[in-house]
Every structure is written in C-alpha cells, then in structure tokens.
Amino acid sequence: MASLWENLSTDISTDGLNNIELLNDVREYLNDVINKEMIPGAVILIAKDGKTIMHEAFGSQQISPIKLPMKKSLLFDIASLTKIVCTWISILKLVEYKLLDLDSEVKYYLNLPGSNEFGNSTISQILKHTSGLPERTFLKQYGSTKNEIVSGICNEPLVCKPDEKVLYSNRGFIILGEIIEKVSNEKLNNFIAREVWNHLEMKNTFFKPNENLYNKIAPTEYPDSKGECQRGIVHDENAMWLGGVAGHAGVFSNTEDLAKFCSMLMAGGVYKGKRIIDENLLKESLSNNTIGLNDNRGYGWVNYIEEDSNYFGHTGFTGTGMWLNLKKDMFVILLSNRVHPDRKRFSSMPEIRKNVLEKSWKIY
According to the model, what pLDDT value does residue 350 have? Predict the structure, then answer.
C-alpha cells in the first residue's frame, strides 16, 4: 500500500468508502465545538489509502475585532509540530549523512565541559524527551541573545537522570536546532528547506513568513494594547526571543503541505519516487522507544497505544495536530488557532483532538 501514498492528490475521493455517513459525524462535531465557542474555527484533512477523503474548513479564522471566514488554504502557526516537520527529520538527515550519531552525547557537538550534566545526555534521549531537562519553558531569564539562552539551557541542572522518565521539554529541541546548525554549518531554516521541504514541494511552509503573506495566515492572539491581531509572527515567546527560527516552534504551514509530509511518511519515506528519509531510521523513530516509562515516545513522536487503535502523532500549543495510523492506512491533520483571540481556550483542545480522532478512525 505504501506506493499509493507517494503522490497524494488533494482532490476528494470517497470511492470504496462504506461509512461515508461517518464523515458527517466529524463535520457535526467540529461545527458544534465552534458554535460553543471552544475554538474559532478549524481546517481538517483526512486521507486513506493514498486518497484525500475529507478536506474542509469550518468556522472563522478570526472573530475579533472583526469576523473573517476560515479557508482551507490558510496557513497556521503550527507551534510544536515544528519539532516533527523540521527538527526531527533534520536530525535524521544528518544521521543519514553520517555527520551525527543518535547515541552521541550533546557535549560532543556543543563543546561542553565533561563536568556538565546535560552534556552527557544523548541526541536520542533528547528526541525521546528523556534527557533529564526540565519541562519549564520560560527562557528569558538566561539573557537576551541566542548564545545566552542556549548556554543557560545547557548549564541548568537536570531534574532526573537520563532515561529515567519522559519529561516533555521544549528546551531539548531548542538544543537540537542549535546542534543541526553547528553540524550542518547552515541556518536551520535553510537546511530543512533544502533537504526536505523543497523535495516535498511544500511551498507554503517556512519560518518567519514575509509580511505580504500575513493576510493568508490565521491570526493568533489579539492584544488590546496593539489594536490588531498577531498574524505571521511566531506565537511562542521563546521562539520569538530566538529570532523566530527555533527547533521547538516557529514553522508556519497549511494542511496541503502537511499532507505531503504525512504521505511521504506513509510511503516509508518516499515522495514521487524520490527517497526523502531512510526507511530504517523512520521505522526506528516511529517505534515506542520508552517502554516501561511514564509515557510512550518514539524519536520526536508520541505513540498512542490504545485497546482498539495504535497510532502516532504530535500536537501544537496553538491548536494544531497530525496523526498517522499505519494499521488503518490513514492520517488526520487538524489545524486550528485556538489561541485566538486569547490563549484561555487551551483547556478544551485535548478533548476536541481526542473526539475528532475517535470519529475519524471509525470511518474505516
């Protein structure tokens, strides 16, 4: 079935879909949560067996100060999906090129002293969120420059021994972004664009979008002090302090581009006949690499191990998520800007994601 995914079409096809009425369950649910003002709007794309079976926009992209309709083509600040779409796959490319080893220690790449606690953590431990770095995300206390922030992260004491437990850490992926730049001798945004995004024809995926694209991007918060929505500027404060390009957040994209990324993964790392990523590295990444710990993690990915459905995916603070189910041969992308007009809507997002996925997996 993998070859069916190498050239995913965005034209809707429900041929062979026995439970087409279940698509209405997804539609009704999204309309319901939007009517209840749990999120302003959303775009969803569901694909099965190499075909797009649903790609629709719901609600509004903006509700304050004026209401604007949601559009399928809209770009979103995808927040922590950056960890997957950029950083994870960049690390794997460097492993392919034998410029980096997953089991090598951080100090080898950042020239940290042997006495540095974090320096003994490995690349794979950071990818699994088992490096021992704290979950705390605020970084401005370390300084105002990128070098000061990176140094502050590296010199902070670990909160547990590596591989002792899973602690979801933005800090670790910031460090991975720094390692990618040092090893490749290239800016992170340039490396990922050349090595992956350009090959996947992801023309609407980038860090720091140009101002002329702002009207094509979903707004995030609406600070009364500014009198206008934040649009096209990264929502994550740490990524903003790091200049808008970081290993944990900062990428903007849309459902069509993310579908190309997901279809490549479903095809075992191949897109339109061209190998993008090594298949064995991909399989290793998607496996549960934290068996026996407090959370199920692959390299970068979350492994969702449930009674009736095992799948993997990732989410983003702004209200984004993408999930791949190899057993059902399908994936789901859900993009929303639940932080518009403010971030107080966060409490409802996990429930919304969970229910959308449950309804989506039932389609087959």
Answer: 94
